[in-house]
Amino acid sequence: MKAAKRMGSQVSQKKVEAKCNVAKEASKNKSKGIVDEDEPPPEVPKKWRDYIVEFHFPVPTELTPPLMQLIEVSFSYPNREDFRLSDVDVGIDMGTCVAIVGPNGAGKSTLLNLLARDLVPSEGEVRRSQKLRVGRYSQHFVDLLTMEEPPVQYLLRIHPNQEGLSKQEVVRAKLGKFGLPSDNHHTPIAKLSGGQKARVVFTSISMSKPHILILDEPTNHLDIQSINALADALDEFTGGIVLVSHNSRLISRVCDDEERSEIWVVENGTVEKFPGTFQEYKEELQQEIRAEVDD
Ligand SMILES: Nc1ncnc2c1ncn2[C@@H]1O[C@H](COP(=O)(O)OP(=O)(O)OP(=O)(O)O)[C@@H](O)[C@H]1O
Fold first, then answer.
1. Are β-strands 97-101 and 123-128 bridged in parallel, bridged antiparallel, or unpaired?
2. Which helix (H) or strand (E) holds 213?
3. Integer Cα distance of 136 and 133 in angstroms
4. Confidence of residue 165 (pLDDT cuts 50, 70, 90)
5. Bridge partners, residue 272, by sequence
6. For residue 248, what are the contacts with CB-CB under 8 A and spacing of at least 6?
7. Whose C-alpha lies nearest to ligand 1, atom 5?
8. Peptide bond into 66 cis (omega under 30)
9. Between the N and C ends of the chain, which has fewer C-beta atoms within 10 Å?
């Protein structure tokens, strides 16, 4: 794990460059109308075709690696003797894409909260680059939206420094790209659906210009068109990504590049890096399940 992490730091610059090239190639292909035959885009219902959803996270500023590290971290909740994460030793750099996998209740969200410094380790150390900006998505952040405010007002309060003649129009254009219909831009957030609130959170994350995205079940409220838009945006994002999702298609799409992707398995109270791709992890899991059924 340590060797992998060291290697990760050395190759991170290469990964970012490679990723930029991949992103350029992808957008070139898109403009040529070339479609990846392995993953045909799903049919989009007619009523949704009146606006184009196009999630986007801006290219982050450069930072010296490592961006984020957990060093020999252990953690347990007070009064929860049946759960503990121990000896967690992981790191993330620009260009790294991490999929966190493991059984229900194993500690995936706990690990995200340790990385985001919402939880303090019982032992060990969390290190972060000083100027690091982290964009976080989870249901908790959707619930934290100030409900009486409309999205435009909310976003302008959180991100007041917008460039452009009309700050309102700049924000409305961004909300539109993230798929919030214009009718809802001045509606109190409390009156929006779960999916519409999720779009406000994603717009806010994008406006914060993060170096790392930490995403806990980001597809829960999204329709197919928006899941594809999110996958495209993550594919093109040149910062670091840490993803927990039950949507294996999203993980396959985003963490498909062996060079930059890592699979962290949270199980039996610790975190191990899986020595292979997500596809190989899924196959190994299926073999284990078949073996258990045969027994
Ligand atoms: N705030 C908390 N206080 C006490 N125990 C907690 C708290 N949050 C989570 N736990 C417990 O810690 C363990 C790990 O929870 P966590 O949510 O990190 O797992 P997970 O792998 O993300 O689960 P799932 O896949 O079901 O979302 C569980 O047993 C859970 O009940």
1. unpaired
2. strand 212-216
3. 10
4. low
5. 265
6. 278, 282
7. 77
8. yes
9. C
Mean pLDDT computed over 225-246: 94
H/E segment holding residue 283: helix 278-294
- Residue (of 72, 126, 93, 29) closest to 242 by Cα position: 93
The complex's ipTM works out to 0.98
Q: Which residue has better confidence, 15 or 197?
A: 197
Residues with CB under 6 A from ligand 1: 77, 80, 83, 102, 104-110
- Pocket test residue of 108, 216, 220 for ligand 1, highest count of atoms within 8 A of CB: 108
Burial label, 110 (beta-carbon count in 10 A; 0-12, 13-18, 19+): buried
DSSP letters for 134-203: EEEESHHHHHTS-TTS-HHHHHHHHS----SS-HHHHHHHHHHHTT--GGGTTS-GGGS-HHHHHHHHHH
Confidence band, pLDDT 50/70/90 cuts, at residue 38: very low
